[in-house]
Amino acid sequence: MDELVRTFAARGDLAHLALFLWASSASALLFLTLRELAAWVRRFDEFVRELARFNERFGGHD
Q1: Please, what's the largest Cα pairwise distance for the chain?
Q2: Which pick of 25, 26, 32, 60 has the fewest CB atoms within 10 Å?
Q3: How far apart, in whole angstroms, are the C-alpha atoms of residue 50 and residue 10?
Q4: pLDDT at site 44
């Protein structure tokens, strides 16, 4: 990694390196956020299913 930074610095492409690092970190954070959101949706769906099952068993149906 250090050699890569030196190569970019020697060529004067520090702005490109900074942009690449920013874009990479932003993409990684987006991926992690979407993964957590998907897990939350699955847990919420399981909760709703269990609630529906509870209502079917113990609901006040006449």
Answers
A1: 80
A2: 60
A3: 61
A4: 98
Which residue, chain included where needed, has tokens 């932003």?
26
The pTM (predicted TM-score) of the whole model is 0.63
**Domain residue spans in the chain?**
2-58
Determine contact, residues 14/8, Cβ cutoff 8 Å.
yes
Q: Residues 38-48: pLDDT tens digits? A: 999 999 999 99
Separation CA 16–CA 22 (nearest Å): 10
Q: 8-12, 19-23, 30-34: which has the minimum mean pLDDT? A: 8-12
In this structure, the dihedral spanned by the alpha carbons of residues 27, 28, 33 and 37, taken in order and rounded to 10 degrees, is: 90
Fill in the DSSP letter of residue 42: H
